[in-house]
C-alpha cells in the first residue's frame, strides 16, 4: 500500500464513519417518528374502542331493560335496531304514546340527543320518562346506536 492509497483509504474510512453517524441519527429520527406513530396508533384505537365499550355498556345498563336491538323484539319500549333514520313511533307493534307517534321526529344523532337529554321536555306526554343528563354518555350511546343500524 503506498501513501496515496493509505490516504484514500483513510478518507474512505472517515467518510464511512460520517455516513455511519448520519445513518445513526437518521435511524434515531426514524425510531423517534416510529415511536410517535406507534404511540398514536396505540392511543387512537384505544380511545375509539373505549367509546364503543362505554356506549355498549351504557346502553345495556340504562336502556337495555326496556329496549332490545333485535328487530321485532319490543319490550316496554320499541326495539332500537336501525333507529337512526327512522320515523319516531313507527315500529310495528311498538307500544307508543300518541305524543311520540304524532311528534313528527325523525331520529338522527341530533334529535336523539335532544330527546335523550330530557324526553318529557322534548316530547311532552311521552311514556319514556328516563333521560341521560350527561352529554358525553348520550354521545357514546348514540354512537353505539348508529352502529346498530345494520343489525
Ligand atoms: C323504563 C323503560 C325505558 C328505558 C330505561 C328507556 N326507554 Fe326509551 N322508550 C321507552 C318507551 C316506553 C318508549 C316509547 C315512548 C313513547 O311512545 O312515548 C321509548 C322510546 C324510545 C325511543 C323512540 C323510539 C321510536 O321508535 O320512536 C328511543 C330512540 C329511545 N326510547 C331510546 C332510549 C335510550 C337510548 C335509552 C337509554 C338511555 C332508553 N330509551 C331508555 C322506555 C324506556
Concise description?
By secondary structure, this protein is mainly α.
Summarize the structure in words.
The chain has a domain at 62-150: Orthogonal Bundle (Cytochrome Bc1 Complex, Chain D, domain 2), CATH 1.10.760.10. It is 60% helix and 0% strand. It has 5 helices and no strands. The mean pLDDT is 81. The site of heme C has 27 residues, from helix 2 and helix 3.
What bound compounds does this protein have?
Answer: heme C
**CATH fold-level label of the domain at 62-150:** Cytochrome Bc1 Complex, Chain D, domain 2
Shape summary: elongated
The string of secondary-structure elements, in order, is HHHHH
**CATH class descriptor name of the domain at 62-150:** Mainly Alpha
Strand percentage lies at under 5%
Number of helices: 5
> Percent of residues in helical segments?
55-70%
Estimated structural class: mainly alpha
What is the CATH architecture descriptor of the domain at 62-150? Orthogonal Bundle
What is the end-to-end distance? 79 Å
CATH superfamily of the domain at 62-150: Cytochrome c-like domain
Please provide the count of β strands. 0
Mean pLDDT: 81
Q: What composes the largest sheet?
A: none
Radius of gyration over all CA atoms, rounded: 30 Å
Low-confidence stretches: none
